[in-house]
Each structure stands twice: as structure tokens, then as C-alpha cells.
Amino acid sequence: MQAAAESPAAAVRRSLTDLLRAPDGVAALPARDLDLTLRLARRVRLLGRLAERLQRRGLLAALPPAAREQLESALVVVDARARAARWELDRLLRALRSRREMRVVALKGSAYLLAGLPNAAGRVFADVDLLFAEAELAEAESLLVAHGWRGTKLSAYDQHYYRAWTHELPPLVHDEREVEADLHHNIVPRMGRLKPSGALLLARARPIPGTLFERLADPDLVLHAMTHLMFDSEMADALRDLVDIDDLLRHFSAADPEFWDALWARAEELDLARPAFYALRYAHALLGTPVPATVLRRSQRGAPVRAVVWIMDRLVPRALFPPHPDAPSRVAAIARFWLYVRSLWIRMPPLLLVRHLGYKFYVRRIRGARPIAAETRVAN
Amino acid sequence: MRVVGELGQAGFAERLRGQGLGVRLGPFDVKVRSGIAAIEAPLYGLYRDYPLLDDERTFSMHLQLTAARAFPRLDRATVRLLVDGRAPHEDLPRGQALAVLEWGINLVIALRAHSLLMLHSGAVERGGSVMLFPAWPGSGKTTLCAALVHRGWRLFSDEFGLVRPSTIEVLPIPRPMPLKNESIDVIRAFAPEAELGPAIPNTRKGTIAHVKVPAASIRASAHSAAVRWIVFPQWVAGASLRCEEMSKADAFLMLATNAFNYEMLGEAGFAAVHRLVTAAACYRLVYSDLAEAVRLLNEMAANDASGS
């Protein structure tokens, strides 16, 4: 009855918000609503998280078989990916420290996994991301190549694109395995609008207990997640990234009363006030993250002009939440298109952008070398 | 339980175009929508005996076929497969729509059913015991399954050996069997009573035609059974019939490398494969003449039944 009155977009928003705010309630949903919830959770890569939660609470067994099987499958995938990531990290460390005791800073999913942060539970890992001092990046790359890693982006154009314009090397993958390793010297593209200092990030990085890896300091870790979402992605279906931010903010602020102040001070110091402003705004508005009012007020210092905020408020939720799988909306498609344009715009200066898009168009449409859409889109 | 055929062909087509057709394929509840009119009649022929599902449920997967055009060659009609609203691969020629749907279901199973050990294997049952045919494409497992189900065996699958880890039970997922190229005429000659869908030429696997699953196999598809034989088949032109028992170690290696998700399952995968090869008799079968092979497998089943 409720579903009949509700627009598809509203049903999507309600379904995913309920899943995040009260995951146990998913077990009590009518089978038909559970169907939509699972489809959406899969699309935004939150199926593993839901499965982990329901299993921990002993709620899996009572679900309809078709739902239970999907969630049990998701748990198997989560375990397998975590196992592969841990093994890859182990192998990477062995190669990277084969000559001397090089500092290796794990980023994003790898850091959450190694440090056992709460958002790692049920999270599906893809690539392994590592941070190095810019001066040590070449050494790290040559060590990995000497130990059997190969570049996956082999065209001269891609090589140039990564090395000249971004903050990471072209992805490397070991001959015998499938997990990609991304070697970074910073957390945002070199040619982009923001200029945080990689050296400042490294200066505060700290060891992960029980491992030979380091991770970014608490505020920096969250700021990286925020920057990645708001300034290094198209935001399409990226709800999971906002969930990471929500989890981390709740976790660190509960453990350390000074965390919120430290976070904002660091955002300004690192020139990341803009992404921090947006991320705090949308985490608070969409996921109910308990950001103190004083912090929300202070974060206004990172805000762009009011008209831009007004536009982003309309675009961002339409990208983070997926369209209804059976009723795709034109408005959402347009919102996603503009955020895609924005993601390119903030990643490189206009002339470079025109060149880049021109080349990509040439490769895809004229020369006919179309990339195959990965199966993993369905898998996740 | 209602079956698809109760809708009649017109009602079937209406479901496909509108709310979607809910159908139970073994352990999977599948929702299919299609905007491709040309597949409605052949699809009805292949699916009329399957259990029909209402919408008040959680489905295992949602697939949709939509008509598209091959931009910028707008004269070329294509079909797009959508899984939960997204396309997992490039559009394909519209004439292949039926095959695209069948491959699409296989793809989604292979990507999502990790609660099961998924062997790339044919599976048939006789006298309550399952015979697995683990093999790579081109080894003739579909042809072998299509032949056996017309000689008294129950079809579990020509593609997936679905095993619940920690058991040796195989779950039936009887689906239309896609014969390729010469096999189409081989089966027409071997089992003239077999019902075949339309021949679809020029696919990436050549010409294919789907054999309808006998109604009895579909009706029994809720009933799993234990593995008794694992036979690695290989069709070799002109070869004389050979069937040798294999060592458990060889069988283990071949079965582990054959599974779609052996690595994904980790330790549970190792234990599951070990349990299977320990419990079953394992053979390597080389054949060129289908009738000879079928006779041999029938004898194997009969002897083991009288011997036990």
C-alpha cells in the first residue's frame, strides 16, 4: 500500500536509508520489499555489509531461501576478497622491503582491513592502495617490477596520463594474481584544484599494530575518504563511500572527544576544507551522522558560493542513491551526467580536459577499441 | 504449484512484456522481462513446464532484454541484457536474444551463487544417484546430457554441478540445453522425440539450438541427490570407446580446476572437492560414438545398482 503511493526514487531512498539506520529491520521486511532492498544493496556494494550484520545478529536463517542464499554468497565473496587483499599486501610488503626497511602506508580499504576498523566488516575490497613519498615512488615501482608485477595500462597515452596528471602510477598487477596495486604519492590528482601536501600526510602516518604497515592519522584517514568521494569520483552509486565516512566519523569521535576539532583544523591545514564541508553536509543529511552543530557551522568556511551548494544538494543524492532498477529516471541520469562532468573538471585544467576527452572519444568511437564492461559490475 | 503453461502463450507474452515472468529454475527464483517479441513463442515452448511464481517474494535475480540499436550503425538491431537495470556486457545481434537470455542467467548464477560449490559440469540422475560430467566447453557434456535424458535419466543440468558445501548432494537446475553445430543433428537423429528450440546461427559458439528439458525432470527439480559417479568426458573424433577409473588425486585436481568458484570458497572449496572425489567413483571417458557412450553409462548405472 505504501509502495503504491511512493515514487520509485522515494522507495529507493527509504529502502537504503532503512537498511543503513536499522539493518536488523531488513529481516522483518515483506518478501517483496526485501527483494528491492537486496537489489539496491548489491548495486551500491552494501550487500556484504548487510549480510555480515544479519549473520552476526543470527537473523540470516529466518530469511526466505532466495534472500538467504544471496547473502550467504555475499559473505563468501567478502571473505575471499579480504583473503586476497591480505595476501597481496603480504606479497607487496615482502617485495617493497626486500632492499631496505621502506615505509609503506596503506590507504583506504587496505588500511581499514589491516587496522580492523569497524567499516571493514562485510566490506568488499577491490584494489590495494599504497602511499609513498614522491621521491620513493620510482624505487617502489622498480622493486615491484623486479618481483613480477606488471603494468595493466600499457598504451603510451595511459602511461602519460597517469604519470603526468594524476596522483598515482598506472595500476600494477602481479603475473600470478588478480588484485591491482595502486601506488600513490598523494591523495588527489596532481593537476586538480586541491593541493594537499603528501609530505604532511606522511609526517603524521602511524604504524598499524601487529603489522609492518602504516596508515594515515585518524583525521587524515577520514579526510582521504571524503576527498576521494567528493573530488576524485563521479559519485555514481557511491553510497558505500559515504557509509565509510559515517562509520569512521562515529568510530573516531566516540574514542576521542578532541577528534572533531582535530578533523576541521587538519582539513584547513591540508587544503581539504571543500571536500570536508561537502562530506560532513551529506553524511549528516543523508545518513544522520552525529556531526556537532559547532563543527557543521565551522565547516561553512569550506563552502563554495550558495548557488553551487544549492545545485550540489540536488545532484549529489541523485548520484549516491541508485535509480530504481526497474524504473530508471531521466532526472537521475542527468544529475549523474553533470557530476561526471564535474569530476573531470576538478581533476584537470580545461585545456587538458578537452584534449583528454578528445583522445578518449577517438579511441572508443573512431578506432573502435571499446573497453569491455567488466563482469564485476554484476558481481558486486 | 502453478506452471508457466497455465498462462497460455498470450498470457506468457503479456507477463514478459509487462510485470515480468517469475519462474523457478531449481534453487533460483528468476524474474524475466523482455521487449523482444520474436523470442516469446520459442521461450514459451522451452519454459512451459517450469513452476510459475507470483511477485510476493524475493527473487534470486532479475533479468531484462530490451531492443537496442548498434550506435552509430543504426540499421543494426541489437538486444541489450540488463541485470538489475545494468548491462553486464555489450549489446549483441537481436537474432540471438534467446541465447543472450540463457547465457545471462548462467552468468548471474556463476557470479552470485557462492553459497554453493559450482562445478562446470553436466549432471544427470538415475536410481537416486547423480553422475557428474565435469568438462570444459567443447567436450560434449551438453550432447551427452541431452542424449541421456532421452534414455531414462533425469536432468540436473548440462552446465552447473551445484553442490551444497559440506555435503555430496547435487541441486538440480534443469535448463534448456544449448546444442552446438553438429551436435544438433546428432541429437535429432539419436532422439527424434527431443523438442528443440529454433536454430540460432552465427553466435560466438556457432549455431546453437536449445533442447527442451523433459517435463519429468522439471517436476522433480526440488529433489537433490547424492553424487555416485564423476565421469570426465571427452569427445574425440574417430576415437574408440574408453572408460578408465582414475586415481582420487587426479580426480581431485581435475575437479578443483574445473569449479567456477574453487578459490572463492577457500578452505570450504577444498573440503567440498575432497568429499566428492572420496565418495564417488571417478572415471575418464573418451568416445566418438554417442550411442556407444550412452550404452556404457547405462550399464555402469545398472551394474552399480545391482552390486550395491
Short description:
Chain A is mainly alpha-helical and 380 residues long.
Which helices and strands, and how do they pair?
The complex is a heterodimer of chains A (380) and B (308).
Chain A: H1 2-5, H2 8-21, H3 31-43, H4 47-56, H5 65-96, E1 105-107, H6 108-115, E2 128-131, H7 137-146, E3 149-151, H8 156-165, E4 172-174, E5 180-184, H9 198-204, E6 206-207, E7 214-215, H10 218-231, H11 239-255, H12 259-269, H13 273-287, H14 293-298, H15 306-320, H16 330-345, H17 350-366, H18 376-379
Parallel strand pairs in A: 1-7, 2-5
Antiparallel strand pairs in A: 1-2, 3-4, 4-5, 6-7
Chain B: H1 8-17, E1 21-25, E2 28-34, H2 40-47, E3 52-53, E4 61-70, E5 73-83, E6 92-93, H3 97-112, E7 117-126, E8 129-134, H4 141-148, E9 154-157, E10 160-163, E11 169-171, E12 177-180, H5 182-190, E13 200-203, E14 206-211, H6 215-219, E15 225-235, E16 242-245, H7 248-258, H8 262-265, H9 267-279, E17 281-287, H10 290-307
Parallel strand pairs in B: 2-4, 8-15, 15-17
Antiparallel strand pairs in B: 1-2, 1-3, 4-5, 5-6, 7-8, 7-9, 7-10, 10-11, 11-15, 12-14, 13-14, 16-17
Helix pairs in contact in B: 4-10, 7-9
3D structure, described in words:
The complex is a heterodimer of chains A (380) and B (308). Chain A has 380 residues and is mainly alpha-helical. Chain A has one domain (6-362). In chain A, 59% of the residues lie in helices and 6% in strands. A seven-stranded mixed beta sheet of chain A has the order 3-4-5-2-1-7-6, covered by helices on one side. In chain A, helix 2 crosses helix 3, helix 10 (218-231) crosses helix 13 (273-287) and helix 11 (239-255) crosses helix 13. The model of chain A is unreliable at 369-380 (pLDDT under 50). Chain B has helices at 8-17, 40-47, 97-112, 141-148, 182-190, 215-219, 248-258, 262-265, 267-279, 290-307; strands at 21-25, 28-34, 52-53, 61-70, 73-83, 92-93, 117-126, 129-134, 154-157, 160-163, 169-171, 177-180, 200-203, 206-211, 225-235, 242-245, 281-287. In chain B, strand 10 (160-163) and strand 11 form a beta hairpin. The longest helix of chain B has 18 residues, at 290-307. Chain B is globular, with a radius of gyration of 19 Å. Chain B starts with 7 loop residues before the first helix and ends with a helix. The interface between A and B is medium-sized, with 37 and 33 residues.
